[in-house]
Amino acid sequence: MESREAIALLVQATLVGSAAIALVLLARQPLRRAFGARVAYAAWWLVPAALAALAIPSASSGDVAAIGVHLAAPLSVAADFAGREAGFSWQPWALGAWACGAMVFALLMASTQAKFRAALGVLRPHGDAWRAEHAAEGLPATIGVLAPRIVLPADFDSRYDAPQRDLILAHERVHVARGDARANLAVAALRCLCWFNPIVHVAARRFRHDQELACDAIVVARHPRSRRAYGDALFQAQCVAQASPLACHFGFGHPLKERIAMLREPTATRRRRIAGNAAVAILASAVAFAAWASQPQDAASNGSKTAASDVVGTIKINPSDFPVGEVRIPPPVYPKDSVDAGSGGTIMLLIDVAADGSITGVSVESATTSDRRLVAAAAKNAWDWKFTPQVKDGKPVAGRVRVPVTFSPAEPKASAQG
């Protein structure tokens, strides 16, 4: 994948992901009030659904007709462009800056995770959980992605009474059963890839909040008479700090008032949850379809090509060769509306060619047609070309080439003679 294509994909994924996140941020509280905390947490599936839809090839456009290419005479040198260098290409630098930022953010997260794990000290078995050697910050918590483990603080037995201990363990077991640590890893990876996007970091905190509320709802539903003890445990857990970007911490980092308030609410019925999950599924499908439909349509796909006998016009490309010897040109497209209107003309393109033969810039120098669809089609097609650069002093060199692209509408058929 070339730098230009990677940048375009990153921009599109950022826009689609940000739109999906904004929708979840708006819908999470209404969904929680109507269907419960578990449905609100499930709403976060809208984000991966929208991003996954970008991997599905876009639909073919019915507004273009792909036709053959007719190369004119052999390439000739354009003297007026001899010695001119290609323009500066910003795409590789932008892609490099993004990659550097992602690596730095990933290293910071890995460092935080390593410090948290080191602070725990030696882990010793404690039933189906593990007890940390030290009363480290952020405990109780579930740590580990491939093999999740419940880790308790060294003072677990003295800090909490027996009912509270049972509820805390029940809460962390829900995290293990649902694989929440893997979900947190996915969120951390998204934050690294989208380190430049503030809405992703805001969403990560809201996601963790909804994750804990959903766990609270499950525990309270299973232990409806232990709401008071559960609330007391939450109060005590607020005294410690969260130190891991991946672990599922019991108490810290989540608005306590909202979690306590939820304990007073009636448990959502099974019917409400089913209705809420159905609503989320429908919404996720709609978001995924909107993301898929927003992709640029692939006009040159097989579904949009016409057979040779159906060609209604020709595109003649006559490159004049400064830095190139040969050119590889995929089949361009002739806009169907222009074909129907009988539009034609020549568009003179100035194309910057890198030393590897890829295109780094396309601009329109002049055009003999007022049909903007033809101008746009010529410029768009040029990005898919590949040149063989000229070699100077044993090394390929960059440069610029002038390419006239001529759109020739079909000749009207002569009427049948009676």
Mean pLDDT: 79
Outline: elongated
Q: What portion of residues is helical?
A: 40-55%
Domain module count: 2
Low-confidence stretches: 60-87, 298-312, 320-325, 413-418
Count of DSSP-assigned helices: 13
User: How many β-strands, per DSSP?
Assistant: 16
Structural class, judged by helices and strands?
alpha+beta
User: Main sheet, how many strands, which sense, barrel?
Assistant: 5 strands, mixed
H-E order: HHHEEHEEEEHHHHHEHHEEEHEEHEEEE
| Euclidean distance between termini CA atoms | 58 Å
Strand content: 15-25%
Rg, alpha carbons: 30 Å
Which strand order does the major sheet show?
Answer: 2-8-16-11-12
Topology:
Blueprint: H1 3-35, H2 37-42, H3 46-53, E1 64-66, E2 69-71, H4 91-120, E3 123-126, E4 129-132, E5 141-143, E6 149-152, H5 156-159, H6 162-178, H7 180-193, H8 198-222, H9 227-237, E7 248-249, H10 256-263, H11 270-293, E8 313-317, E9 324-328, E10 333-335, H12 336-341, E11 345-353, E12 359-367, H13 372-382, E13 386-389, E14 391-392, E15 395-396, E16 399-409
Summarize the structure.
With 418 residues, the protein is an alpha+beta fold. The chain has helices at 3-35, 37-42, 46-53, 91-120, 156-159, 162-178, 180-193, 198-222, 227-237, 256-263, 270-293, 336-341, 372-382, and strands spanning 64-66, 69-71, 123-126, 129-132, 141-143, 149-152, 248-249, 313-317, 324-328, 333-335, 345-353, 359-367, 386-389, 391-392, 395-396, 399-409.
